[in-house]
Structures are given as C-alpha cells and as structure tokens.
Design brief:
The protein is about 50% helix and about 15% strand. The protein is α/β, with parallel strands linked by helices.
C-alpha cells in the first residue's frame, strides 16, 4: 500500500534525537521492509505544553490541513493514513478528516487517552484523539498497559499489538567485551521524567559509593548542567560524560559496559533498554510504567519496586558482586532482543495487522 505517515508530536526528520523520533523512524523502516511505500506527508508539529497554547496550534493547523486536501485532489491519494503517537498534547488534526473525505483506512500506533486530562482543560484538544481511536481501522498498541488503557476508555475500538522493537543489526555487528564494573546509561537531559531518573540514579549510586564502579553517560540536552550537578559529589574519574553520540558509537560503548542502569521513571517503554540488552548488558530498572514490556524481570534484567531507591541501589550492588549472575543475565538479554524484538520480526507483524484490518477496510 501507499502509506501516508504522520507523527504529530515529532516528525521522524526532527533534528533532536528522542525515543519518539527513533520509534517513528523504525515504524517507517518496518513498513517499507514489508513492501509498503511510505511518505511522511507533513512536518507540521502539533504539540502544546498548555491548553492555552493548544488553541493557537489549532488556528495554525488550518492552512496545513487545506494543503493536504488540495494535494490529493490533484495527485494519487494514499491508500492508508498511519498516525504515530497521538495523545492529549499532540492530536492528529489532519488524518481522520482526510481519511474520511478520501475514503482510505486510518491507523494509529501508540495512541493514548487520559480521562483525567479532560478535567484539566484539555478536553477540546483531546477530543480529536478519541475520535481518531474510534474511527481507526486498527489501533496498534506496543504494551499491555497501553492496550488496557485504550480498551477501558473505548471498548468499541479495534486494537492489535506489536511489541516494542529495534534494528538489531548494529548490535549484532559488535561482540560484547564487558567490563563488569562499568555501568552505562543513555538518556536525554531534559525536564520531567528524565530528570527524575537521573536524580534517582545519582542517589542510588551514592548508597553504593564504596563499591568499585564507573558510570558512562551518553546523552545531552537543555538540563545538562543540572544533571552534572547531581553527580558532582563523586570522585574524579567515576563519571564519564560521553555526550551525544551516533548510533554506531553507542552500540560500541554499550558492548564494553557491564550493566545498564536507568530507573525509568514514567517510561512509556524505553527503546534504550532494548539497545542495551542487544549489546549484551543486563538492565537494572524499576518495575514501572511500560518498562516490563521491554525487560523480562529476573531473566534479562532486574526490576525493583517503583520509587524504592534503596532497593534500586541494592540491585545494582548485587550484580556488581555476582559476576556469574551478571554474565547469565547478559547472555539472556542479548538472545531475547536479537531473537524476539528485531526490525524484521516487527515488519511481519505490522504487515499482518494492516492486511487483516486496514486491508479489509481499504477493499471495502
């Protein structure tokens, strides 16, 4: 099929790296691997930090909406509209109406809806998300948590599941040469959940400061100074600030690590966890949000109770003290991701879902 792809929050071509951008890019590659042609039809960013800002976004979107409608009155229309990650701050303001006008199937991936946001001034901006979920030929959920969330609010919605995945090729190309005392993390430095995870990680490492370890941090962002301040009390040489790196470099850095440490406060799931495991690193994270969708507890990593910093510190210490246990989890982690969470596998799953749901809608 000719697929019109749209990610309202962050286009796959956005200059700032993030998990959202990476997932959008991976979805496009998986769809193309399955034989579909994919066109990113708009770079228009629909993202509002406040309900007041949302009203301004709505006004600015009208011109882009008309551009898209005019385009397909003159050119061959797409055969499917695929929207990635519509939610209350970033609804798809174009796809549902265009799909209805041109009679093409509409599909969402990682859509979410929060009833509590309606009572906080977001109802007018979240309504298009609910309408899109109801209209969709299928809503693709990446985690059981997301599936249940959609099902609870929209029992009539059509839902299918694809487990989070990555391109494992970069990681298959490197051979792990682990330093068991080398901790690694890869994360942007920005406000919100990311900063909270950095705070928890710094506090946990202070608890086990007497053990031999070093921490390599890959990442950058607007709050770099604040993140560096969190780790300022550690002895020189213990924290290695590696900055923003290219994917090939990250794969090599991870392969030389011994453990991936990232608490994961509020993580939707976290593709970085899959990358770390593919490189042969056991994960230490919290059992929270969508993290259990990408880390198999006690098999490919250790998941500690949400918010329990001391338990988190103890889990890291336990793996530092248990070389054989670390090695066993590391091997299981690499097998898990390369065997079960690859781009090729996701391409087959996505293609089957589109043929079973959107293909049938298109034929009608």
């Amino acid at each position: 099929m000719r697929i019109a792809f749209y990610a309202p929050m962050k286009s796959p071509g956005h200059p700032v790296p993030s998990g959202d951008r990476l997932m959008a890019q991976l979805l496009i590659r998986a769809l193309e691997m399955a034989g579909h042609s994919v066109d990113v039809v708009s770079e228009f960013r629909v993202h509002a930090c406040t309900p007041e800002a949302a009203a301004d976004v709505l006004a600015k979107a009208e011109e882009e909406f008309e551009r898209l409608r005019s385009k397909w009155r003159e050119e061959p229309k797409p055969e499917l509209w695929f929207c990635y990650h519509p939610y209350y701050k970033s609804p798809d303001l174009f796809g549902p109406a265009i799909s209805a006008e041109f009679m093409i199937p509409y599909v969402t991936a990682e859509a979410s809806y929060s009833r509590k946001r309606d009572g906080l001034g977001w109802a007018f901006f979240q309504k298009p998300v609910g309408d899109a979920i109801r209209q969709a030929a299928v809503n693709i959920a990446f985690t059981e948590r997301d599936w249940k969330g959609l099902e609870e609010v929209f029992p009539e919605a059509r839902i299918a599941g694809v487990k989070p995945f990555i391109d494992t090729a970069l990681f298959e190309a490197v051979s792990p040469v682990p330093d068991p005392q080398r901790l690694m993390t890869v994360a942007m430095m920005r406000a919100g959940d990311k900063l909270e995870s950095y705070k928890m990680l710094a506090a946990a490492l202070q608890v086990i400061e007497q053990r031999p370890w070093t921490l390599g941090i890959v990442g950058d962002g607007p709050l770099r100074a604040e993140v560096e301040a969190l780790f300022a009390g550690f002895a020189p040489g213990r924290i290695d600030w590696l900055g923003q790196r290219e994917p090939e470099e990250i794969a090599g850095l991870l392969a030389r690590g011994g453990m991936y440490v990232w608490p994961g406060c509020g993580e939707a799931y976290g593709l970085a966890y899959l990358e770390a495991q593919a490189a042969g690193l056991p994960v230490v994270a919290q059992r929270t949000a969508g993290v259990p969708a990408v880390v198999e507890a006690d098999v490919t990593g250790l998941l500690t109770p949400d918010g329990d910093m001391k338990a988190y510190a103890q889990a890291i210490a336990g793996l530092l003290d248990d070389r054989a246990g670390r090695d066993a989890i590391a091997s299981a982690a690499r097998r898990f991701v390369i065997g079960e969470r690859s781009l090729a596998g996701a391409a087959k799953e996505l293609d089957l879902i589109l043929r079973n749901h959107a293909g049938a809608a298109h034929d009608r």
